[in-house]
């Protein structure tokens, strides 16, 4: 039996109480924490095969090593989150190897293959920035002690991934020609994808369990603004166009397209000219998963057969 009622625990964590053990949680707190950790773990895990596909396009041995180091970090970060889920009674083996591809909870953007070096570094620059924005807020505000301590290492390494992406975005954009065009094409489809990553607008949010239990501190719109405050100036500084701008009247970044919008995953192209769509349509797209979902998950789960073969040898 939990030590506190739900309302007592919500009040305690907002007054600074740090939860350390499962018997200090209510069932509501535990469920909200599991959802948060599951998304974190799955996102880190599935980023690895997405990055690996494009790392093979690295322009030199040194850059291949850097990209491989990032992939190794992402797998380690996934292991940390799955390990924390084990503390909550879940089976890591089942989570990684026992689920169907569509059951993983990573963002829809990571169901798309990265097809060249430019797409890889833009993913580092935009997606890893989204990850740092989300995890940085969790690190600063979370009421769950084990996660807060684990994120010290994770955030430091994610910062390296981000710097890698930003450095290469500047380098390729500065090179001009086809290199610059590849960066622009990658930003064209990944920028709105990252905007969508932060979820429903605040005025449509249907539940706020993670805020109620102080598992994070910022709302979806606040996180989205934090991401745009760094991403839009970066792209503008290197001459790459983004569908967003700073509004003096509203004192915030605003999008230059209907949000959310329809996306053509076969052509990796947003159909802004067709106007906005409902969030129900977005949820259907997310639930269906993207074009590389099965391929990426199967590439991860193949590791189990290889490990069993070695154990049997």
UniProtKB/TrEMBL annotation:
Pfam family, one: PaaA_PaaC
Alphabetical GO biological process terms: phenylacetate catabolic process
Enzyme class of the recorded protein, top EC level: oxidoreductase
GO molecular function: phenylacetyl-CoA 1,2-epoxidase activity
Domain of life of the source: Bacteria
GO cellular component, one term: cytosol
InterPro entries: Aromatic_CoA_ox/epox, Ferritin-like, Ferritin-like_SF, PaaA_PaaC
KW Oxidoreductase (keyword) present: yes
Keywords assigned: Oxidoreductase
Source organism of the structure: Longimicrobium terrae
Protein's recorded name: Ring-1,2-phenylacetyl-CoA epoxidase subunit PaaA
Entry EC no(s): 1.14.13.149
Keyword rRNA-binding belongs to the record: no
């Amino acid at each position: 039996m939990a030590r506190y009622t739900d309302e007592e625990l919500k009040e305690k964590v907002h007054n600074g109480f740090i939860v350390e053990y499962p018997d200090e949680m209510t069932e509501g707190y535990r469920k909200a924490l599991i959802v948060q950790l599951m998304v974190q773990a799955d996102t880190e895990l599935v980023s690895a095969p997405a990055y690996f596909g494009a790392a093979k396009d690295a322009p030199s041995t040194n850059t291949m090593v850097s990209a491989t180091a990032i992939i190794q970090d992402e797998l380690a970060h996934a292991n940390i989150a799955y390990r924390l889920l084990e503390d909550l009674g879940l089976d890591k083996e089942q989570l990684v190897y026992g689920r169907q591809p569509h059951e993983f909870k990573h963002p829809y953007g990571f169901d798309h293959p990265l097809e060249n070096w430019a797409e890889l570094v833009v993913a580092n620059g935009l997606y890893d920035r989204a990850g740092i924005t989300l995890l940085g807020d969790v690190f600063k505000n979370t009421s769950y002690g084990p996660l807060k301590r684990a994120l010290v290492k994770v955030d430091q390494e994610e910062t390296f991934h981000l710097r890698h992406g930003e450095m290469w975005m500047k380098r390729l954009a500065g090179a001009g020609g086809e290199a610059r065009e590849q960066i622009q094409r990658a930003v064209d489809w990944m920028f709105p994808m990252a905007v969508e990553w932060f979820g429903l607008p605040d005025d449509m949010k249907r539940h706020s369990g993670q805020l109620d239990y102080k598992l994070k501190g910022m709302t979806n719109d606040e996180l989205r603004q934090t991401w745009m405050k760094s991403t839009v100036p970066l792209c503008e500084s290197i001459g790459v166009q983004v569908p967003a701008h700073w509004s003096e009247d509203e004192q915030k970044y605003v999008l230059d397209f209907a949000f959310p919008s329809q996306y053509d995953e076969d052509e990796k192209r947003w159909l802004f000219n067709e106007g906005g769509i409902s969030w129900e349509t977005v949820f259907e797209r997310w639930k269906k998963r993207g074009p590389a979902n099965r391929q990426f998950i199967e590439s991860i789960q193949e590791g189990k057969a290889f490990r069993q073969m070695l154990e049997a040898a």
